[in-house]
Amino acid sequence: MSLQKDFRDAMSKLAAAVNIVTTGGDAGTVGITATAVCSVSDTPATVLVCVNRNSASNAIFKQNGYVCINVCASEHQEMSMHFAGMTGLAMEDRFALEGWQQNAAHVPVLNGALANLEGKITSSQEIGTHTVFFVELDAIRCNDKDGLIYFDREFKSVEARQEVAKVA
Fold first, then answer.
1. 32-62: string of b/e by CB count within 10 Å (b at 16+)?
2. pTM for the model
3. pLDDT at 164
4. Closest CA to 52 of 38, 34, 68
5. Does the bond joining 108 to the residue before it have cis omega, within 30 degrees of 0?
6. Residue-wise pLDDT tens digits, 93-118
7. Of 132, 134, 153, 149, nearest in space to 51 by CA
8. Residues 140/117, Cβ–Cβ less than 8 Å
9. Which of 26, 36, 77, 132 is the most exposed place for a label (fewest CB within 10 A)?
10. For residues 35 and 16, is the Cβ–Cβ distance under 8 A?
């Protein structure tokens, strides 16, 4: 076995939130499904997103400079598949699906996502096959819904925590 295959197999065992990362602007409007999203700091609120350097979207993210990380609810599995390129739906048709609106920076935001993390790419670093984008957030919205994760090469739903009624 190769180290690359071993690495990919090991990473498939790392359950991760499913996100649709979008950008819009002069360079165009694109989105990708990504699990390589991670918090970096709460002051300033910063996350990182890893995007394959061979992806046509990579250069568009760099040129536009603004993104929205849409943390997917379980109801967004099909949408996630579209943005992962699993269904053959063209990019412009993906954004024509119900639920998308543009923010002030012309970045698509998915209504009803578990969270929308909007911000500006403040720096990036090329690591192997990927670009690591550091995004400083300027707007955050959250919803209480069941979540969507990717584990063992499959989408899985995760139930939201139920509020426990307090007894007086």
1. bbbbebeeeeeeebbbbbbbeeebebbebbe
2. 0.92
3. 63
4. 34
5. no
6. 999 999 999 999 999 999 999 999 99
7. 132
8. yes
9. 26
10. yes
Tell me the residue type at 159: E
SS3 string, the chain, reads CCHHHHHHHHHHCCCEECEEEEECCCCCCEEEEECCEEEEEECCEEEEEEEECCCHHHHHHHHHCEEEEEECEHHHHHHHHHHCCCCCCCHHHHHCCCCEEECCCCCEEECCCCEEEEEEEEEEEEECCEEEEEEEEEEEEECCCCEEEEECCEEEEECCCCCCCCCC
Q: What is the mean pLDDT of residues 41-65?
A: 97
Q: What are the structure tokens assigned to 16, written together?
A: 């991760």
